[in-house]
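User: I'm new to structure prediction. If I give you an amino acid sequence, what do you actually give back? Let's try with this one:
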Amino acid sequence: EADLGAWKFRRFQGPLLDVEVWIDGNPGEAFSASYVTSDAEKRGRIGDQDLVSAVVTRYEKPDGVIRETVKLVRRLAQDKGYQVDEAKIEGVRALTITGPGEAWVMWPSRNHVVKVGGRGRASVPASVVESYGERFPSQLPGGSLEGPLPSPPDSAPRPDEREPYD
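Assistant: Good question. You get back a string of structure tokens that encode the predicted 3D arrangement of the chain. For your 166 residues, that looks like this:
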């Protein structure tokens, strides 16, 4: 609940139980913060380019966070309305998501998923991504949109599924 340079903190919400990245067996809760530009405050009127939101979802454990984040963004990439890319923004390896009238940046960080952006935006302010990236360092593997999905958390065989000893 603090200003991020020229972006002034305005609102906090949470915990929210409706999370965007669903991980079976790993419940999460989301927290959101809204920021406006100092210019909008001076004008007394907020437009789409003056507002940015950050949503941080915290999960009980890191299991599945990277895999399910990548799966969600790959599904969005298949939707003709979204353009999805992988980029490094102010040192944060992230997935960029742009669609009709919205722009977002998303990345996994241990047992968190961070999403910054908003509706009515053409881009996401790099300074806000940098601020959240310092607190929640990205664990997104390079080439995640094209490479194999990270292994599921329970990919190791169960004791009863292993080959018996000779």
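You can read the tokens as a compact description of the fold. Here is one thing that stands out. The CA atoms of residues 24 and 54 lie 23 Å apart.
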